[in-house]
Amino acid sequence: MSGFILRRVLSLAPLLLIVSLALFLMLHLGRGDPAMDYLRLSQIPPTDAAVAQARTELGLDRPLAVQYLSWLAGVVRLDFGVSWVTRHPVLEDIATFLPATLQLAAAALALTIVLGVPLGVVAALARNRWPDHLTRVVAFLGVSVPNFWLGYLLILLFAVTLGWLPAMGRGGPEHLILPAIATAAMSASIMLRLVRSSVLGQLGNRHLVFARARGLSERTVIGRHVLLNAMIPPLTAIGLHIGELLGGAMVVEVVFGWPGVGRYALQAISNRDFPALQGFVVVMTMIYVICNLVIDIAYAWIDPRIRLGRTLT
């Protein structure tokens, strides 16, 4: 198991390097001059002398490769520079806003699992009956409705019309309910359909006939021989859902006025705050990669064939 973990950790280094290079090139080879953006955000008149001084201070007068290596060296030390808007270290800003986003994404992930897995199992066991049809309709609606529009609908119904829940801000648990539902709706629907398909695939296996022939109860057959094996694909999909939930949370944060890192990133995009934007992308990529690493380890622990390098047959 330790060898598998080491191989997975080593394989992440090239991925992070490629992401950092792509991010750096996209920002620095795009339209506009970062020096002009810096002066605009600093409220300094963009004279020729000021532009030249800004380019020297920011290191923009150096070759692009030198700029990248210098920035990468800072990233390794977790030094993403200073935000041109807040004038605070980028890592300090992200550390301030990130807990709110992680709280929202964690609540949405919990809803995805708590709703998607049981409903998917129910739909599979009641195939072509009314519970199956009802859950499939719910899953279709969940996938079809954009999370920001669902957020507005939830605010209109539960905050404006009924007055049951707050519409904006971050506070007690009641403030988390609507944003978490809006964030988790699509992921829970996808999880439901995946679990249903996986359970149906296991129900068709021939070894279940022999399990029942040995006198095992139906609960044991379903729990030990169906559900345990059927949970491997959904477990793998959780890693993909983490990235989806983080992205969805950033959009929902704007709708519900949630003070997370998504609003910080949107501010960085609108202001062309390069250090903040670079730091945000790198940190979110690292979180996504680490979460997927944990999922891969759990996957290998459940199915020894994965860590032994064998394919599923």
Automatic annotation (TrEMBL):
Keywords: Cell membrane, Ion transport, Membrane, Nickel, Nickel transport, Transmembrane, Transmembrane helix, Transport. It is a multi-pass membrane protein. Gene3D superfamilies: MetI-like. The chain crosses the membrane at residues 104-126, 138-164, 176-195, 226-256, 276-302. SUPFAM superfamilies: MetI-like. InterPro entries: BPD_transp_1_N, MetI-like, MetI-like_sf, Opp2B. GO terms for molecular function: dipeptide transmembrane transporter activity; nickel cation transmembrane transporter activity. Its main location: membrane. Residues 98-299 form the ABC transmembrane type-1 domain. It holds the Pfam family BPD_transp_1. It is found in: Cell membrane. It comes from the Bacteria. One of its GO terms (cellular component) is plasma membrane. Coiled coil: none annotated. Belongs to the binding-protein-dependent transport system permease family. OppBC subfamily. This is Nickel ABC transporter permease subunit NikB.
